[in-house]
């Protein structure tokens, strides 16, 4: 991913267990490339990747 997309950073996340959002038991890892300026305020990490979904 570094070579092809040249991101400035990454968020890595998993959902482990039903109460964490996992609906089917399996290994599933989110690797999200991030770019400077992709969101106004990157604080909150993976929770802020899609700002309109970030209600907490």
UniProtKB/TrEMBL annotation:
SUPFAM superfamilies the UniProt entry points to: HIT-like
Domain annotation HIT: ranges: 1-41
InterPro entries, A to Z: AP-4-A_phosphorylase, HIT-like, HIT-like_sf
Pfam families recorded: HIT
Motif placement: Histidine triad motif: 26-30
Superkingdom per UniProt: Bacteria
GO molecular function (one): catalytic activity
Name this polypeptide is given: HIT domain-containing protein
